[in-house]
Structures are given as structure tokens and as C-alpha cells.
Design a protein that fits this description.
The complex is a heterodimer of chains A (182) and B (456). With 182 residues, chain A is an alpha/beta fold. Chain A has helices spanning 18-21, 34-42, 84-92, 104-113, 160-165, 168-174, and strands spanning 4-11, 67-72, 96-99, 117-120, 134-138, 143-146, 149-152. Chain A has a single domain (4-174), classed as Aconitase, domain 4 (Alpha-Beta Barrel). Chain A contains six helices and seven strands. In chain A, strands 4-3-2-1-5-6-7 form a seven-stranded mixed sheet. Chain A is globular. The two termini of chain A are 26 Å apart. In chain B, 30% of the residues lie in helices and 18% in strands. In chain B, the strands form six sheets. Chain B has a five-stranded parallel sheet, with helices on one face. In chain B, strands 18-15-14-19-20 form a five-stranded parallel sheet. Chain B has a four-stranded parallel sheet with strand order 10-9-8-11. In chain B, a hairpin with a 7-residue loop joins β12 and β13 (309-311). The longest helix of chain B has 17 residues, at 73-89. The chains are: A alpha/beta (182), B alpha/beta (456). Chains A and B meet through α4 and α6 of A and α2, α3 and α5 of B.
């Protein structure tokens, strides 16, 4: 992928749990079946309360989003271990979530699947940035630039190459931990 | 080392591990269910090939429990995907809904939600099934594709939830790379007062440390207060480690643990050897706090997160539309008995749903007699809508025809474990988490009620 990403951002606040990312009724979709993977994308973040979040991440009738970067507060992805959550966001075309903090299993599922870059921010960006603002994420320098300000992000460290490789299996094959696929 | 560190060291073949170390551990049991199993199987086949075999048949446990009693055709299909895989791999531990190994699961909605629609192998909720069927053992490593897998920490083992990709990796290799967490110690002294339950202990603690207060950490429970608790109590507490963001919850080993596990592995013919981990004299904790159980009062986690704590006695003005008892955390026999203690001889004032965690809980509630009446009949007689179809049901919402699901905005008090917006169905509904006692007392009055008014 390119080393910078410029996109409109979608902003959410604290404790966006996996039910808000992909409500339980859609877990009947199996992510490894390609039509069902696409469909998961169309439902990404559909569980957000309408009064707080009048804008949809994915417009009704579409499977892809115009917002490739999600900005969040504390504890993004808390709750269930459902891998459908990072997959729904990834399937919708989200490439990175920049949050004040992440829940553990969600973070790990982002890495294992390679669907998303889960960046921790130093600032509480969800109070500074608004949905629809245009931002540039610089993967080489670990920064997010939005509204003329550049904010440093915490480097992803040892998980970065796993996401770059496209997930744990590709990474494990590249590094010889498991044999290459015949 | 702490209990978690000792287990991870042993499982990775090391003499010593420290928080932050990344270690490859050998997995003792991998559990999956109908919601994440099909995707896990998909990952396994995509990555290891269509003819690949799982690393060890005796270590894979498959429990359909989430979306079972629904007419949703995709949900019914997902149970069939599990069965096909079990047949192909000849897996011995599959707790199928139907008895015919070549059949298809189809829920018949015309027969209603209350009467049982399952065969002789079906068990119910995975986390409650695992110990019952002899798959939890002290000192072991258990991974499950479900965040409440941490419940098995009650049995002095390392247990945590993972995603489909990690589970697919385990199916092929029997190993997983994990980071050793820092440990927080919760030292419990004294005994709980009448009207207070293990659920109040964990809701109190999560309120104390916050909804993300244990993120990436192990929650280790120690002290005399722990040893006075039943295994069911310990399971309730370990189950909710994830609600504070914890990686796992873990209890020390004692005679109660040993007796419980030995009885069940014998009954089921599962692996009988195990090696507990004992508490070391020297341990380092990132957090260490003592709690006096005798000071705790009935506690509620208010909408919208499990850390939003308030005492039940201060919430009398919260009007309720519904009460719910069930789930891994709150649907055990002991939970229903406590609930029934409050309900007996009275009538519920609001819609009240009871979903036993397992088919064994159903049987025990029908067998247990109080004054010549079964507990089951006592609850039904009080107006509680009891279903024999043990499952996760409305704890996590599920398909729209799920028993007890909230399909319109309403207030519900629930003995379950999670209350983020939309958790039990409609995204504008509000869920208040509480103990079975508090849920029962509130069902009788129609508003949040301190159960000590009813429990002597």
C-alpha cells in the first residue's frame, strides 16, 4: 500500500463496542465466504445510536464507505471477540482506526487479520476532529495531519510488519514459521 | 511469578516469563461455537488446505449455543457447517442440537420458544458446558472464539477469547503467540452479607477500576474470601474479567477446585491428569487492592457500560419494562435458585424471561422440589417465562426472533454480563446489569430494587 492515506474521517467517541461496530444479528454472516464478507462491510458501525451519530459510515444500499479513517476515543472495540468487527470495517474500506485506546481482542484481531491499522493517538482526537474533515495518515512517520495540525501517533512496533504482510498467516509464512502454501 | 505467568511459562517450555514477553504456548483446549466456528473453519481450510486435519482431535471442543432457537436460515446453516466439519475431522467433542449426525438443523417456530427442540447431545452455553463436560482443568491453557472464555479462569487455568484467525491458526498448529500480561491482584477478605452475590463483587470491582481498568491485564483473585466462594461464584467473577478489558481472570487452586474438576472428568471420561499452579510467595503486581466482602451491597451496572456502577438502593426511581435471567454468567442452577428464593410465593410485575445456561440447569430446576413443587413450576407460577431451550438467547440480542430479545426501546434489568448500547437487541434499549437476587426483586416491583427487602 502507499505510505500515506488521505481521506475524510469518521469520528466516534468512547467505548464503541463490537455490538455497535457489527450488531449481533449480522454475525450469521461468515467472513470467509466472499459475498458474506462484502455484506459485513455494508453493516459496519450500523449499531451506533442514531441520535449521537446521524451520519452513517456506509450509506444505505452501498458496501463501501467514503471514510477510510475512523477516529475514536477510549476503549475502541471492547466487548466480544468477534472477528467480524475488524472485518466489517475492513470490508467497508476503512484502512485505519486512530483511537485514544483499544480493547485487547479487537486490537489483536486487527493484527491477525491484517484488515486494519489500529493506531493509538497521544491526543484525544475525537474531541478535536469532526466527521467529514479531511486527514492524511502518514504511515512512514506515524502522524495524522488534519485541519492544518499534525498529530504524532504511537508507532505500531512489532505488529506493524504483521499487518503490512496482510495478517498472521502471511507473516508466519514470510518469516518461515509455518510452511508456504502448496 | 503470578498464577498467569506460571501457566504461560509452563506452556511455553520456559523456566520464567515476565510481563511483556511474547511466547508461543501449546494449547490444551480450543473451543468454538456456531457464530465464530464457521469462520474459523473457513480460515483453517483456506490457510492449511481443504484436506488438512486439525492438530489434535481430542483438544477441539465445538458447542453450538448462540443462535440456535431461531428460524433464521443462516443461523441454522451455521450449525450444519459445524456438523460437516466434525464429521469430516471425526471430532469427539461436539454437542450437537440434533442427534442425527447426517441431519440438518431446522428450528420449528410453530412449536413456540418454550418447549425443548433439541436432541440428547445438546448442552447449551459453551462456557457453562466446558466445566460440566470435563474440559476445564487447573494449570491448562484454554482458548475460545468468545470473549467470555475467561470464565474458565475459575478453575485455576489460563483462559481467554480470541478471533477466528487465531483460532484457525491453532486448529492447524496447536500453538499461539501471546504476550504475557501484567497481573492485577484483587484480595478478598470477609464474607458476603445476605442479599449480596458474586455478581455484586465483580460489578463493584469493575466500577472501581473502570470499564477498561484491566485492559491487557490478568485479574488474579486471592484471599480467604475467595476460598469461601463456590465454584459457581468464582465462574461468575472470572467471566466478567473481559468487561473491565481483562485478558483473563484467574483463581487459586483449592480442594473445591480439585473436587469439582475430578468429579466431572471422571463422569465424562475426559483427560483426568492435571497440574495446578500454586500461589508463589513472591509475585509482582501492577495493582494490588484488598476488598472487604462484608462491606459490599447489591450493585448495578447502569446503561451504557459495565463500569457504570451504582448501588441498587439508590436506583429506585428507574422504572423497568423487562427482567431477564440467563447466560453463562447468570444462568447457572445456583443463579436460578437464588432468583427463585426471592420470587417464590409472589408474582412478577413486568415481563420476565428465564433462560437456563444449559440443559442440565433445566433438569436440575425441574428436579429440585420446594414444598412439593419444582423450582421450575414455582417460577412459571410466578409469571416468569421459562424456556427449556438453553442457549445464549437474548444476552447478545441475536436474530430478531430470539427469545427475550428487545425489539423496541425499553429498560431491562438483567443477570447477564454486558450492557453496551444494543447488546440485547434494540440499540435504544437500556440494560442494567445486576445479580439474580436484584433482578428478581426488581421483577417483583417493576423498578430497580435492593433485594435485601426480600432476602433475610
Amino acid at each position: 500500500m502507499s505510505h500515506t492515506l488521505t481521506s475524510k474521517v469518521f469520528v466516534v467517541h468512547d467505548n464503541i463496542d463490537t455490538d455497535q461496530i457489527i450488531p449481533a444479528q449480522y454475525l450469521t454472516l461468515v467472513p470467509t465466504i466472499s459475498e458474506e464478507y462484502e455484506k459485513l462491510g455494508s453493516y459496519a458501525l450500523i449499531g451506533l445510536p442514531d441520535d449521537k451519530y446521524p451520519v452513517d459510515l456506509v450509506e444505505p444500499g452501498r458496501t463501501k464507505t467514503d471514510y477510510q479513517i475512523v477516529i475514536a476515543g477510549r476503549n475502541f472495540g471492547c466487548g466480544s471477540s468477534r472477528e467480524h468487527a475488524p472485518i466489517a470495517l475492513g470490508a467497508a474500506g476503512v484502512q485505519a482506526v486512530v483511537a485514544e485506546s483499544f480493547a485487547r481482542i479487537f486490537f489483536r484481531n486487527c493484527v491477525a487479520t491484517g484488515e486494519l491499522y489500529p493506531y493509538d493517538s497521544n491526543e484525544r482526537l475525537c474531541d478535536i476532529v469532526k466527521t467529514g474533515d479531511e486527514a492524511t495518515l502518514d504511515f512512514d512517520h506515524d502522524t495524522l495531519t488534519v485541519n492544518g495540525q499534525t498529530y504524532p501517533l504511537k508507532p505500531l512496533g512489532e505488529v506493524r510488519p504483521v499487518i503490512d504482510a496482510g495478517g498472521i498467516f502471511n507473516y508466519a509464512r514470510k518469516s518461515g514459521m509455518i510452511p508456504a502454501q502448496s | 511469578m503470578t498464577l498467569t505467568e506460571k501457566i504461560l511459562a509452563r506452556a511455553s517450555g520456559k523456566a520464567h516469563v515476565a510481563p511483556g514477553d511474547n511466547v508461543w504456548v501449546n494449547v490444551d483446549i480450543l473451543m468454538t461455537h456456531d457464530v465464530c466456528g464457521p469462520g474459523t473453519i473457513g480460515v483453517f481450510k483456506r490457510e492449511f488446505g481443504k484436506t488438512a486435519k486439525v492438530w489434535d482431535k481430542s483438544k477441539v471442543v465445538i458447542i453450538p449455543d448462540h443462535y440456535i432457537f431461531t428460524a433464521d436460515s443462516m443461523s441454522n446453516r451455521n450449525v450444519d457447517i459445524l456438523r460437516d466439519f466434525v464429521n469430516e475431522q471425526e471430532l469427539p467433542y461436539f454437542y450437537d442440537v440434533i442427534d442425527d449426525p447426517n441431519g440438518h438443523w431446522h428450528f420449528d417456530a410453530s412449536r413456540g420458544q418454550l418447549k425443548k427442540q433439541y436432541g440428547s447431545h445438546f448442552t447449551g452455553v459453551c462456557h457453562t458446558t466446558l466445566p460440566w463436560k470435563g474440559h476445564t482443568r487447573p494449570g491448562e491453557i484454554l482458548f475460545g472464539t468468545d470473549s467470555h472464555t475467561c470464565m474458565a479462569g475459575a478453575f485455576n487455568q489460563f483462559a481467554t477469547g480470541i478471533g477466528n484467525t487465531d483460532a484457525g491458526f491453532i486448529l492447524g498448529t496447536g500453538k499461539l503467540l501471546i504476550k504475557v500480561p501484567e497481573t492485577m491482584r484483587f484480595y478478598l477478605e470477609g464474607e458476603m452479607s445476605p442479599g449480596v452475590m458474586a455478581k455484586d463483587v465483580i460489578l463493584h470491582v469493575i466500577g472501581d477500576i473502570g470499564f477498561d481498568g484491566a485492559t491487557y491485564r490478568a485479574m488474579q483473585w486471592e484471599g480467604l474470601g475467595v476460598h469461601t466462594m463456590s465454584m459457581d461464584d468464582r465462574m461468575t467473577i472470572a467471566n466478567m474479567a473481559i468487561e473491565a478489558g481483562g485478558k483473563n481472570g484467574i483463581f487459586p487452586y483449592d480442594e473445591k477446585t480439585g473436587d469439582y474438576v475430578r468429579d466431572r472428568v471422571r463422569e465424562n471420561g475426559t483427560k483426568s491428569e492435571f497440574e495446578p499452579v500454586e500461589v508463589d510467595a513472591e509475585q509482582s503486581f501492577i495493582y494490588d487492592k484488598t476488598f472487604d466482602l462484608s462491606k459490599l451491597e447489591p450493585t448495578v451496572a447502569m446503561h451504557p457500560d459495565p463500569g457504570n456502577r451504582e448501588l441498587a438502593k439508590n436506583l429506585g426511581d428507574v422504572k423497568l419494562d423487562r427482567a431477564y435471567i440467563g447466560s453463562c454468567t447468570g444462568g447457572k442452577t445456583s443463579d436460578f435458585l437464588a432468583f427463585a428464593e426471592v420470587i417464590r410465593g409472589k408474582s412478577v410485575k413486568i415481563d420476565t424471561f428465564g433462560v437456563p445456561a444449559t440443559t442440565k440447569v433445566v433438569a436440575e430446576l425441574k428436579e429440585t422440589q420446594w414444598d412439593g413443587k419444582s423450582v421450575w413450576d414455582i417460577l412459571e407460577g410466578a409469571g416468569v417465562r421459562m424456556t427449556e431451550n438453553a442457549s445464549c438467547a437474548a444476552c447478545l440480542g441475536g436474530p430478531v426472533d430470539t427469545f427475550g430479545r428487545m425489539n423496541t426501546p425499553m429498560n431491562c434489568i438483567s443477570a447477564t454480563n454486558r450492557n453496551f448500547p444494543g447488546r440485547m437487541g434494540h440499540k435504544e434499549s437500556r440494560v442494567f446489569l445486576a445479580s439474580p437476587y436484584t433482578v428478581a426483586a426488581s421483577a417483583l416491583t417493576g423498578h430497580i430494587t435492593d433485594p435485601r427487602e426480600f432476602v433475610s
